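Protein: Noncanonical pyrimidine nucleotidase, YjjG family
Species: Vagococcus silagei
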Amino acid sequence: MTKYKYLIFDLDNTLLDFTLSERFALEKIFTTYGIIYNDETVATYKEINGKLWKKLEEGRIEKSVLLASRFRLFFESQGLEVDGAIADEEYRGFLADRADSILGARALLESVQNLGFCILSGTNGIGKTQRRRLENNSFSKYFDKLFISEELGFEKPDVRFFDYIFNDLQIKDHSEVLMIGDSLSSDILGANRVGIDSVWFNPDRLINDTLIEPTFEVAQLQEITDRVLKARK
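Structure follows.
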């Protein structure tokens, strides 16, 4: 039997298809404010949003600053002055309405639940939005507990995010914990910092040109049960 007892799943682009949901939500929010939705405007937003998230992960800004700034800065680049916090709340409403999941996510959750693992979420996001998206996909029933950065007060890869989970569940043996996620800079780096094993979900087969090393790398979620969990005994 595998040595792992606790599986911490990232949500966005690991179990939930954030890319697809984001595309829908961005088109809705752009349309709401009269901005054309095309490759150029999307690229502009993603550049602004990406820089803010990088600062957040590095601990240089607070989540509230990111949420109030990203759409304010984006619409400013398009010649509009808007209340960034209100626009962000509207966007997250559109996002929360979606029920988009990654291929194989439900089968994986059912499998690891049947195998008796303690299934946890470890996600950087807004509590209300993430919980609603899990409900929309009927995924909530698979989780023993949800750990969401907004509610914890810490963002991955901050070690305090993981320490919160360890303390909450009184996990003493970190070798029993496996982190599963798509982000090297968030999920895998965070796992490395606290000394737990990790699975990098890399469906696009990207080249890892960083110094961040996952324990495992998979291109399909099914590999987690077929290869990773069966291999670690």
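Remarks: The chain has a mean pLDDT of 95.
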